[in-house]
Amino acid sequence: MSQKLRVGITIGLHQVDETLWNNGIKQNGVFLAETLRHCPNVESVVLVNTTGVPITDALPWDQTRWPVVSFDDAKDKLDVLIELGGQTDPARTEYLKARGTRLVSYCCGFEYIHAAEAMLFGKNMWDGNLFVNLRYDALWFIPQVAGNTQSYLEVMRRLPGQVVPFVWSPVFLEARSQSFPDGGQYRPRQGPRRLTVMEPNINIVKFCLYPILIAELVYRERPADIELLQVANTLPLAQTNRDFIALMNHLDIVRAGKALFTGRHDTPTFLATNTDVVLSHQLENPLNYFYLEVCWQGYPLVHNATLCDDLGYYYAGNDAGAGARRLNEVIDHHDANAVSYRDRQRALIQRYLPDNKDVVSTYSALLENLMKAPVR
């Protein structure tokens, strides 16, 4: 292809200094931008803010490397707009289509699950004003959401989709960790282990209960080896949810005062200052940034994420006993192999990096095929 493409990726800023650690969507946009910068058929990539929040130097990334512009400033300078973190409304869609811009929906959320929960539990997700855009030229799904969301959106948007490579970079993790000893990387520590659970607990996709049960089984067997179980993002549950409180009070690790239920923390800080082992569990979320952040820094991750089962200490399904066996393995053997473990994790994670040749060539081909097809 002779044409060099000007690509925009949408984000939706809510604050001028919005943190990168409240969810993965901003990081996703930046990592995709970094990937596309390596594509030989791409001339430029900008992040396009779809909200009215002003763009200032307060944003937590290098805007010379990953420039951010408003939609109005970008709309006449794009060959492709990838809708990732902010939706393109009907008027903007019509404008882009009139000038021949290709519009891609980059699906990186569990839209089926969000929609189902909204309808079942009265979350009022759309407030009666649902807009289903039928003008996309392509639907791209990252692998971990394809299983539950791809078919749902294909039907609603009347267009077949494609699964595309997941991308991640340690650039923000390392920047946030540079002030910590050893760059925030895991180092062996004498004494009983501090266990950490950092699931967001906003739905059952990433919920803390099974990791707590894993910790409970190990604590029953060897209480002297557990210093503390720290469960982030649970403060409201532990303060006001009577069912959660009742259930927790049946556990030995809670009754012994060895469990701490806390609020929100950014991952790099909590790893570097509070953590020896991370326990995790997922349903329909078999790959995400959190797993890669933990493993890149060399922390033992006990998890059941099937798309990265070669990372960390994997257990299958919902088997708390298997998770407990992996946690015992970590306690008994991890520190003797901590450096080789970290190096192996980083070698495996290379497959997700923005400069990985296979990743770059796949996105180059996706863009080439996109431009060959007629505009919808």
TrEMBL record:
InterPro entries associated with the record: DUF2827
Pfam families documented for this protein: DUF2827 (PF10933)
Domain of life: Bacteria
Name of the protein this chain belongs to: DUF2827 domain-containing protein
